[in-house]
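[job 4471] stage=fold_predict status=RUNNING
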Amino acid sequence: MRKIVLVFTMVLIMTIDAMSRSLQQNNPQFLEDEVTTAVVVRVKVANDTIIYGNENVRFPEGKSIDSLIRKLPGVIIDSNGNISLNGLDGKVSVIIYHGREIYNVNDARYVDLGLSVNWATCNVGAIAPEGYGDFFAWGEIEPYYDAGLAQDNPQTHWKDNKAAGYDMSTYKYCKGSTTTLTKYCNRSEYGYNGFTDNKTTLDPEDDVAHVKWGGSWRMPTKEELEELRDSCTWVFTTRNNVKGYVISSNKPGYTERSIFLPAAGNRIDTNLYNVGVEFGLWSNSINTDRPGLAWILSYKTMDYIGRGFGFSVRPVCPK
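[job 4471] inference complete, writing structure tokens
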């Protein structure tokens, strides 16, 4: 194991190695509401921890930890969420930013709450439990924007073919409305030219949790979301200046276990709504009475909404 210690300083250090020079090319870096400029970055190698700065700083309330991590000098994040450091082989396991641990790959990827399935500790597309992650239309496996960019400015960085944002006009499995469905339709009056396939739950290739995380990971069923709602205590709080819910098990023997769900909001068109107020988690199931809609859990309410809108995904896996 190697430990990489990055210390920002305004004092010129004569022994600057190639890694230091490489990292300087990334500065200045805008970290949320702050600007950090490093004249010299000194790197010591041992283990796989990155430490940025020594002084204590305040995290801007409501900002995404993921967004901050993406902007740290030298950080590279691959499509699977693995972190490495520019110019250095090997994965990063821990990031400490001004005295606060904001990332630890060794944290359990799931928590056993004593329920029928294990619940992931992060949303799909998130790096840390406090991260909002990406927003997905139901049954689609890519967000409509470039990760880490449009999250800060909802009017920019949208992918060309999704410039209109999240609605039924851009949704993959219809011809523009909830009554022109081309997949996952059990009623002919909602299908395009009477189309039906009687599919009511996602196929594995359309389940973003399974596609992105692999193995036995998948999106939760409506019943599993209801179980999370009914078998846990929900407390609205702030963690690392991110508002959300600590969800603690009520099952005997599991009451010390919990997960955190950030109040990530949702996306309709290109707009981001209700950040810091609420969240929505997709299930893998359509509303069989109105198949253009799919079930979501929003706070402790099961509801359904148009499949083309953008909501979060929290994976589950079998025990």
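[job 4471] summary: The radius of gyration is 21 Å.
[job 4471] exit 0
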